[in-house]
Design goal:
There is one protein chain. The radius of gyration is 30 Å and the shape is elongated. By secondary structure, the protein is mainly β. It has a domain at 670-735 and 788-821. The protein has a 22-stranded antiparallel β-barrel. It has a six-stranded mixed sheet with strand order 1-2-7-8-5-6. A five-stranded antiparallel sheet has the order 16-15-14-23-22. The chain starts with a helix and ends with a strand.
Length: 1003
């Protein structure tokens, strides 16, 4: 069995390499091919130049090339007139190309319905850089992602789907349901569904290439694809294969002046001595040492001391006697404190290398019975650098007084302590080794086979089985091994006998002078492996029932079974928390299975009558039995009314459910970085003497609580937290119960009823949505833990350390916060509602072709409210119009909840030429501090606009050129007070003005 498995893997890799080699060859031939030989294979877009279009009774369903009905997205049933009762945003393939982006999620995030989830700006510290999507800001795992109506492979423990795995070459369009759909599609579809639609049929070859680069000469991106298809066996069979390759170069903060002073960390390359409040140096001795430097002002003996290159000491807070660079070599004085801005070191934009293969085929075995199959293979690597490692997490680095490299002035101070022979804590940043970097390699495979056909007149069936797996191999390069550092520091010769020169961390020059042998000794490449798999079997029967005179009532019956498994094996040093600046994560595994049965019915009531051109109702119910959380039921009811042909009213109500996923149930204690900022500008550590908690009216009570929590009483008068972030530990919870949501929408679709004049080509859709989720599963927000423990919002009026939130904070012997526990809990509720508007108007203008027209398209999202209930039976907190720069991927509340967001395109399109200007707008927002600490709210974020220019030209029938400029005016990044990096590179454009050019050939 092992031999066979290896053979299959080798065969898959060989096939992939061969296919990609063939693709490269065809690319070269395609560029040289004569345009006169090309034959277009793309259908004309339903709306020219638009990025987001309403369904308008179009785009919500399609007809297959062999005449078989394709179900309306959002329904198991083909409704009369292809009408959708759910608000659907349809995005054409041409609109995706005009966005000029490599990743599909970057195109989708421009649509007002979406909040930024995971993308190229969210891959630091080995978090994967996955491309996840987030509808209405309700979390990346509360929307369902489908390919042709079927679930895509999960990419992580939390059930998120990385849409980086989708081959662009086979995407013909995208339908987005902006409302709950659990009764139709099952768990996860609480905020909506994103259905990627593949090319139904292809005859010939299609080649598509695109290059993008910034006007600064970096951020190069390439996307190329090859697709070919053919019919066979007298058109009884059809086959399609597509291969693609995408590359995206990383961009480092050193290449943008914005990051020169961002993330000013107190962990610096000179290293610092951290005094112990319980073994503090003698104040007079410290004063005497600094007096010899000519500094006679009083020096607090509990402040960190750094090391100048000449062996003298400096006080990090206040920069007393600091003799190093202040605005070069990675150092900066911030508030007269010595800092190293990490923004200059990190890759704020990930590198990406993606190879994909996709094959599907169908064959009519007998008249009315068709077998079909599908295979997808993805090899994806995401790379990022996160700067120099630091001594922040895990057991502190200590130095014995016997270390030979200790500067003489520090020896004098150490000897003045009550226990002069005790080791001391050392903080620093490892500037002598290359930047820590992460390589996230994913191998995704999906196999699917099925059978569909007719049972009897008006009745059909469709049954399929699929298996998919996502294997994630993570490499952490230049990871500093804590135990090896400690071994060198403890050695009598400073480690010189273990590696050339030993390890001298005292002073920037000494730290940078680390020998290659010692750099190799203290670093390693750490390996971890994660595997997620999904097995699915589904059977569906569709049939026609009775007819009330307006058309047959239809029913769909579905039964399915799914099993998801997960396993994670971390590097041994990672599991032991023996790697600097990387939080530990223990081995883990788990599995969930679910059995489901669902039914949907649609009943046309009236048709072709005055004021009732169409009237119909429908409903659905789904019962799901989860192996971990039991049985849950979701249901849906809907109605549609068309008083005249041009106007449709629609609405639906749904009870949606979401069962806890593997990560929420079984996740081991795993870490992330929690950005808390530096007080008083940000929340910071409330025990910090600079914080508003300490300086406010209740400062004495806060101080008492801090001492009870672990800050030494001797240090409380001068305690400061030395950096802008700390650890955050997330753990699963097997006692979780499913979420439940009530969602409803009501709207109208208007197509112009007139055939002449200015508004003859006009359409409008307006939809109101309301989503109310109870029993929300989420990890406790870290900033909320600090705010509530220290009564910053009035929830701990007795300032008791026994408070549930205070128990989630862990400090070390010096009082520093080591980690904030943020376990998964059924916390409370989420409520959001708003209005989405989509409009199109076109006017024939025969400039370049008889079919030419000038058009305007707009999609507008207005969020009426976004509120979070942090605990059951507590008040909802209003996050409407709030910027949450410290939010992680998929967090609740999300990165931003602007009241207004829009995407507007003005352009011209004909059969041979098109051009347009696109405007992306996001309204102003308050900083999250206005919610957490309203008395000291920080500056918010102004309205943000980007303009893009695009053009395309078709030569002959099968050769098309396109080009454009994104961020035409080179809009800079906005300042985000609550973000560790001073901005949010996932939400806003960090690249600046960029140019793209593409070519498409079909023959």
């Amino acid at each position: 069995m092992i031999t066979n498995a290896r053979a299959r893997r080798d065969l898959a890799h060989s096939a992939s390499r061969a296919a990609l080699a063939a693709a490269a060859s065809v690319f070269a031939l395609g560029i040289a091919a004569s345009p006169a030989l090309a034959q277009a294979t793309d259908p004309a877009p339903t709306q020219a130049g638009t990025m987001a279009t309403s369904d308008q009774d179009k785009g919500a369903s399609t007809q297959s090339t062999d005449g078989a009905d394709i179900v309306v997205t959002g329904s198991l049933i083909q409704r009369p007139n292809n009408t959708s009762v759910s608000p659907i945003v349809s995005v054409s393939a041409s609109a995706i190309k005009e966005a000029g982006v490599v990743s599909l999620q970057d195109a989708l995030n421009q649509i007002p319905s979406f909040t930024t989830g995971g993308n190229a700006g969210t891959g630091g510290q080995g978090t994967g850089g996955r491309a996840s999507i987030n509808l209405h800001g309700l979390g990346t795992n509360r929307n369902l992602v489908l390919l042709d109506g079927r679930r895509l492979p999960s990419s992580d423990i939390n059930g998120n789907v990385d849409i980086n795995i989708l081959p662009d070459a086979i995407i013909e369009g995208i339908d987005v349901i902006t409302g709950g759909a659990s009764a139709v599609y099952g768990s996860d579809a609480m905020s909506g569904v994103v259905n990627f639609k593949t090319v139904r049929k292809l005859e010939g070859v299609r080649i598509d290439l695109m290059n993008t680069i910034s006007d600064r000469g970096d951020a190069y991106r390439f996307n190329g694809s090859l697709a070919f298809g053919s019919s066979f066996a007298d058109d009884r069979g059809h086959a399609l294969a597509a291969f693609s390759y995408a590359k995206q170069n990383p961009v480092n903060g050193s290449s943008r002046s914005f990051f020169t002073d961002k993330t000013p960390s107190s962990f610096i390359g000179t290293g610092t001595f951290v005094p112990s409040a319980t073994n503090a140096p003698n104040a007079a001795v410290v004063q005497a040492v600094f007096s010899q430097y000519g500094n006679t002002a009083a020096v607090n003996p509990l402040l960190n001391l750094g090391f100048n290159n000449d062996g003298s000491l400096f006080v990090q807070t206040g920069a007393r006697n600091y003799r190093g660079p202040t605005d070069t070599s990675g150092y900066l004085l911030v508030g007269n404190n010595v800092r190293m801005p990490v923004g200059q070191q990190i890759d704020f934009y990930n590198g990406l290398d993606r190879k994909t293969a996709f094959v599907k085929a169908d064959y009519e075995i007998t008249p009315g019975i068709t077998a079909y199959g599908q295979f997808m293979y993805v090899d994806l690597t995401v790379k990022t650098a996160s700067g120099g490692s630091l001594t922040q997490f895990g057991v502190p680095v200590t130095v014995p007084v016997t270390n030979p490299f200790i500067p003489n002035d520090l020896r004098t101070i150490l000897a003045s302590r009550p226990n002069p022979t005790a080791s001391f804590t050392f903080n620093g940043r490892y500037v002598g080794v290359p930047y820590k970097n992460f390589s996230e390699q994913y191998t995704v495979q999906q196999y699917l086979a099925g059978l569909r056909g007719g049972i009897a007149t008006g009745w059909t069936f469709d049954v399929f089985a699929s298996y998919d797996q996502s294997v994630h191999n993570q490499e952490t390069g230049n990871a500093v091994v804590k135990s090896r550092v400690q071994t060198l520091l403890n050695a009598a010769d400073g480690g010189a006998s273990l590696c050339a020169g030993g390890f001298n961390p005292f002073g920037d020059a000494n730290a940078r002078g680390l020998s290659a042998a010692c750099a190799t000794y203290i670093t390693k490449t750490a390996f971890s492996r994660e595997k997620v798999s999904q097995t699915q079997v589904q059977a569906q029967i569709n049939g026609k029932l009775f007819d009330l005179g307006a058309g047959p009532a239809q029913i769909a019956l579905v039964a399915d079974y799914r099993r998801n498994t997960y396993s994670y094996v971390p590097d041994s040093d990672l599991a032991a928390q023996n790697l600097e600046s990387i939080i530990a994560s223990a081995p883990a595994s788990g599995a969930i299975s679910v059995k489901e049965a669902a039914a949907q019915i649609d009943i046309p009531l009236i048709a072709d009558k005055p004021f009732f051109r169409e009237l119909g109702v429908g409903g659905a119910v789904r019962v799901s039995d989860y192996s971990t959380s039991g049985t849950v039921t979701s249901f849906e009811g809907d109605a549609r009314w068309r008083p005249i042909d041009a106007l449709l009213f629609r609405g639906s109500y749904q009870r949606a459910v979401r069962a806890p996923n593997i990560g929420e149930l079984f996740a081991p204690a795993s870490g992330a970085q929690l950005v808390i900022g530096t007080p008083p500008g940000s929340l910071g550590d409330p025990c910090d003497v600079r914080s508003t908690a300490r300086t406010g009216a209740n400062g004495t009570q806060v101080s008492t609580l801090c001492v009870a929590q672990g800050v030494p009483a001797a240090a409380i008068g001068s305690y400061t937290f030395p950096t802008t972030a700390t650890g955050q530990t997330i753990t699963g919870n097997r006692a979780l119960t499913p979420e439940k949501a009530n969602t409803f929408n009501f709207g109208l679709v208007l197509n112009s009823p007139i055939k002449t004049g200015l508004f003859r080509d006009f359409s409008l859709s307006v939809d109101y949505y309301n989503i109310n989720i109870k029993n929300v599963i989420s990890s406790v927000p870290g900033l909320t833990v600090l705010s509530k423990c220290f009564n910053l919002d009035g929830t701990n009026p007795t300032y008791s350390n026994a408070n549930a939130y205070c128990q989630l904070i862990q400090r070390d012997a010096t009082g520093q916060i080591v980690t904030v526990a943020t376990p998964y809990l059924n916390l409370g509720g989420l409520k959001t509602d708003g209005v989405e508007i989509q409009a199109h108007v076109g006017l024939p203008v025969r400039i370049a072709g008889a079919s030419g027209k000038v058009y305007a398209d707009t999609a507008i999202g207005w969020t009426r409210g976004y509120k979070v209930q942090l605990l059951p039976n507590t008040a909802f907190v209003d996050y409407t119009g709030v910027s949450n720069g410290g939010a992680g991927t998929g967090s609740v509340p999300p990165r931003a909840t602007p009241r207004w967001k829009s995407l507007t395109t003005l352009g011209y399109r004909s059969d041979s030429f098109g051009a347009g200007l696109r405007w992306r707008y996001q309204g102003p927002m308050k900083d999250i501090s206005a919610v957490l600490t309203p008395a000291t709210a920080q500056v918010g974020v102004a309205a943000y606009s980007l303009f893009d220019l695009f053009a395309s030209a078709r030569v002959g029938k099968g050769f098309e050129l396109r080009a454009g400029v994104n961020n035409l005016l080179d809009k800079g990044l906005p300042f985000i007070a609550s973000s560790q990096n001073g901005t949010d590179v996932a939400l806003y454009d960090p690249i600046g003005r960029s140019f793209y050019m593409g070519v498409k050939v079909g023959f």
